[in-house]
Amino acid sequence: CLSGSLLMLVRLAGRRDDPFQPLDTAAILAGLLLSVAALVRPLAYPAALVVGLTAAWFALRRSTVSGQRRWRPVVLLTATAVLPVLLWQARNHTVAGYDGLSAIVDMNSFFYQGAATEAAVTGMGFAERQRELGYRDPEVYFAARPEQRDWTPAQRFDWMGQAGLQTVLAYPWTYATVH
Questions:
Q1: What is the pTM of this model?
Q2: I need a surface site. Which of 32, 47, 54, 165 has the fewest CB within 10 A?
Q3: What is the distance between the terminal CA atoms of the chain, rounded to a whole angstrom?
Q4: CB-neighbour burial class of residue 85 (10 A; exposed 0-12, middle 13-18, buried 19+)
Q5: Contact (CB, 8 A) for 104 and 42
């Protein structure tokens, strides 16, 4: 999806306005593909915004159309890229009380990015640090954090995301060398 959307965005940005081929369809398709890419792979979320805004800038710069027609593809691209993702986040909040796009982002922050950084700082192996944190073993995880047994999954994911981020921010140079 991300590759397809990037191709559509390149096409959108690289052409001049042609009254026989409106940009609206290409903008909507590119926006929807970016949105789907972000839903499938949360890493695409910020990439979609950066790529989308860059393509919009090129399209506006090259456009021969003036006024509101010039902004229409940009608005369509932005709306179709962002709206489905925001709706999914609203759904997560309603169903699970979780405000994020995907819990995998928070788990990755804690069990991968934070664990890799801590392993490098302490000189221990990455897999060993993951085991200590309770990766794939809820009993080990809860033994280290018994207060979380009564938490909702959303509360635990929020905590994991914050804890992983704090670790990375505490050792930014180590994180940069590990990743």
A1: 0.75
A2: 54
A3: 25
A4: buried
A5: yes
